[in-house]
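Retry 2 of 3 after timeout on previous attempt. Resubmitting structure tokens to design endpoint.
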């Protein structure tokens, strides 16, 4: 979803009915939740995956899909702290509705983020658009916006789904069936238990200059395909390899650590060298 622009149609009616249609060129992918039934359908492959939600209390937090502008805005606004300056921008029209702008600007120079703009519906207070500009330029490095929106309940049949004739159907385990660590699973089948040796990440700095560090653990560096992908996306630096984007940098050190932050590359290397 981050490699190119995408258009999606999102239908919501309460916590247990949702449909997301990701519209690709000459094809589309559908994620449909209706009560406790979950479907994913790929029209290009004519394949469907079916699962059952263990609890119909709502969409699980780890349900794959699309982050809508209002979900992204809520996440970003929750992160605003004293290191962020919040101002009001000019009014404008978004998805045919009058909106006002909230602009969040980091007070720190140690970040790749230049500003975050949220367009809020003037009547309902719903965020309609979000754009993030990098400190290196004024054009958005990332944006999500509604182009059309209706506050009427979708027709019930939108959430009904029957796989087309000839579709390949896969039955998946109940969604969220194994959410706990492996060592708490039922091993009555005689399979050996696994222990979770993961550790909490180390956090250096605060606010926009935060760097998160964690162990690569069992990172499959011996996988030729994965190694080749990392080599293509990264460049060699002292003590490891660096993957750079306009908003996020990732440092993989030779001694098996991963450092991530919306900070310049030299900040990541300085944190790594302090260990």
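Retry 2 succeeded. Sequence:
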């Amino acid at each position: 979803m981050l490699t190119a622009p995408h258009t999606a149609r999102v239908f919501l009616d309460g916590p247990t009915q949702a449909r997301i249609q990701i519209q690709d060129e000459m094809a589309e992918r559908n994620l449909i939740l209706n009560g406790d039934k979950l479907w994913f359908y790929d029209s290009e492959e004519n394949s469907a995956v079916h699962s059952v939600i263990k609890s119909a209390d709502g969409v699980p937090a780890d349900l794959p899909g699309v982050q809508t502008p209002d979900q992204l805005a809520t996440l970003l606004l929750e992160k605003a702290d004293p290191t962020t300056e919040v101002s009001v921008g000019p009014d404008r029209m978004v998805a045919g509705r009058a909106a006002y702008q909230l602009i969040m600007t980091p007070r720190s120079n140690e970040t790749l983020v230049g500003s975050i703009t949220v367009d809020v519906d003037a009547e309902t207070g719903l965020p309609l658009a979000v754009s993030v500009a990098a400190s290196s330029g004024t054009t958005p490095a990332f944006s999500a916006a509604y182009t059309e929106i209706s506050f009427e309940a979708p027709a019930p049949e939108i959430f009904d789904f029957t796989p087309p004739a000839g579709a390949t159907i896969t039955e998946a385990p109940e969604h969220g069936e194994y959410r706990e660590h492996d060592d708490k699973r039922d091993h009555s089948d005689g399979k050996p238990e696994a222990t979770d040796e993961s550790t909490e990440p180390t956090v250096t700095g605060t606010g926009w200059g935060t760097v998160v560090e964690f162990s690569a653990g069992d990172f499959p560096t011996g996988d030729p395909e994965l190694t080749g992908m990392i080599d293509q996306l990264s460049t060699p630096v002292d003590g490891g390899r660096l993957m750079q984007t306009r908003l996020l940098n990732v440092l993989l050190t030779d001694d098996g650590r991963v450092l991530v932050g919306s900070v310049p590359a030299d900040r990541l290397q300085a944190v790594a060298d302090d260990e």
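Attempt log closed. The helical segments are 69-78, 224-233, 265-273.
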